[in-house]
Amino acid sequence: MSDAEKKTTPEQRRANAARVAKCRARRAAVERLKTDAGFPALWDTLALFSGYPFRTAKGLRFRYELKGGEMKVNRKEKTITRSTVEMAYEKARRGPVTGPKKLGVFGASYLYPVFLRLGVINKDTEAEQ
What we know:
mainly alpha; two-stranded antiparallel sheet; globular; 12% strand
């Protein structure tokens, strides 16, 4: 056991193990999205990223929580419905999306950075097209 490990409490080690497990689950879900491009796979991945810190295109920090069929963003009072997320997802899969406005749905400024992080939108590839 290293000196750093000796200084941590069992609670800290458990918390760290939980963070590592969550990180691995998120990474695996993003990889799974590359092969299973269906909306249920996306929604499951969104659930894993619930509470993850994101930034809008303008640099504003936000997090979201999924509750039932809605996405609640901490910077908004209104929620983004599951059907709106699905519409944005279909638009992102169909063609080049160079910015949030190209998604054309309510909450696009929050969905765009989430889709970037999940690999639904690839900023470099989209810009070239």
